Amino acid sequence: MFKDFYAQRGEYIVISAEQASRFAKGVAGDYNPIHNPDARRFCVPGDLLFALILVKFGLSRQMEFRFTNMVSADTPLLFSEADNGELHVSDESGKCYLQVVRSGETTLDETAIEAFARCYVAFSGKNFPHYLKPLMEQHGVMFNPKRPLVIYDSMGFSLERLDGFNPNLALTRSSLDVQGKRADALLEFSIESAGDAVGVGSKKLVVSGLCHYDASEMAAIVDEFYRLKAAYEAA
């Protein structure tokens, strides 16, 4: 699963800029410029780290992910489990990029894991413009159009079961807590399988460098998003 998006080098996983960018666009539908291989502040999508955690350690009924640092391209990453059961993604110097707390039943079934990972990543990739633009417009704020910065802070979910799993995620509630030049966006979602409610979850994003909402500037950013999307799909 997802083996095309990383390379295994001994005990470490290495993700190139090209692999990370292909995952962002091709799997998540995420055209954030920060995931372009030539981006000055390039970073590996947090959703790729999320997917690889599930591949390596399985899908648990309760999981909490906290992203603590941004991962640069070609950083050797160690995926490990601590004595207390916490999962960590760290580099060779011990710098931690992702912490995961989990509990409850765990499945290693590849079909269930891939279905949930792809379903969540497709949902998560819609951060902008689908979820964030209406929130920012409602509150009269937006990120700096010349330097848009949206950071993946954390996410978590709770599942009632793991068997007979064909998940679908839907946004149930969204909110934006503005604090000066930054804001916390909370996206809450339901998880269904074959029409039955099987879980709930939420995702937190941090939007930095806030300024007053400018409809024309935002329209230009949205147009660029769809231009990049069309160009990728055409290629």
Automatic annotation (TrEMBL):
InterPro entries: DUF3581 (IPR021974). It comes from the Bacteria. Pfam families: DUF3581. This is DUF3581 domain-containing protein. It comes from Halomonas colorata.
